[in-house]
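Continuing the series of single-chain predictions for the mutant panel. This is the parent chain; the variants come on the following pages.
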Amino acid sequence: MQTRLPQTLRNTEQGAEAEEILRKCVHCGFCNATCPTYQVLGDELDGPRGRIYLIKQMLEGHATTAQTQLHLDRCLTCRNCETTCPSGVQFGRLLETGRRQLALQTPRPLAARAARRALAAFLHQPTLFSTALRLGQFMQPVLPAAVSEKIPPRAQSGGKWPTRVHPDKVLALTGCVQPAMSPGINLATAQVLDALGVQMVMANHAGCCGAIPLHLGFDEDALIDARRNIDAWWPWVEQGVKAIVMNASGCGVTVKDYGHLLRQDTRYAAKAERIAELTVDISEFLEGYIDRLHRLIKPLGTRTVAFHPPCTLQHGQQIRGKVEAILSVLGITVKLPQNAHLCCGSAGTYSILQSELSKTLRDKKCEALSQLGAQCVVSANIGCICHLQTGISIPVMHWVELVAQLLGTAREIESS
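Parent structure:
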């Protein structure tokens, strides 16, 4: 794609990167075939190719409007188009640049800015979110249906946190909403790792990965989160921690991008690169322990689950097949729904800010999952899990919770 970006913009790192990405695009339109919003709306400007044209025109100096903002806001940032693109267009990074530029050219109304700021602050503070969630669960019967359906039932902890100390240690991130909405995920991860002789450590002062403020346009807040996490993790890195293990793929894809996000920060750039290198999804880590897991669990008969691979796992981190392979070795039959590559509509705060589109995508995904005849649905990201729970009758859980259940059952059989 030919570009005519102003020289002043091309001389900046952001402008140079945007021009390089734009020039890779060959207008083929393959991306539209796998874009969830284009599939629903059928509008060229609600597909990647159309959004690329909008961003190109904006960067070249053309006027923007609220309509431009709408088309960019409707993007889920699922990055399915990156998986599809034969030219390697990094649409996610181009979209970030486009949204920053758009915020300068067409600021949102004050009420919209305030709402986004409040949303970022609310989801960003685990204590505040946890308190509000408990209140919402208490008030759920009298809340409007649109609000009530987003509130999950009160989660049970599901056992005791491991207390054994192991020489092999990994870091993990507590997360923002996950401890309140599904505390069993972190617990199950710690239990599985403990059974394998690995200790999971939650570093003091490590908090939000930065994904929430980043996707809401508060870039500086996201960088503050990244620097705080690096500072919290660095003493453990110096002590030789094996990895930083992520059990929320949305957090994983963000932390793996710390090197890029902090590339201009002379104090943190090298550390950020090292943190990104150490960061792995829990499926990547457990892949190296699969034989030991198999010996511990000893497959106990047939069980069928439906697996929803989050976009942040399959497109953002380009991890495919690992979860299915691990569960299959453990005696689980794993089924993928039709169009497994498409987003479920959760996408962080998207389900709140673009609720109708989000619900449409959720319903399509839940219908496809329901047709598989599975006993439960498993996924790899808290946002997807909570979103799908509101649209399907069978249980939805993190796949690591299922592995922890199998370990517990195996222990009961062995001790009986």
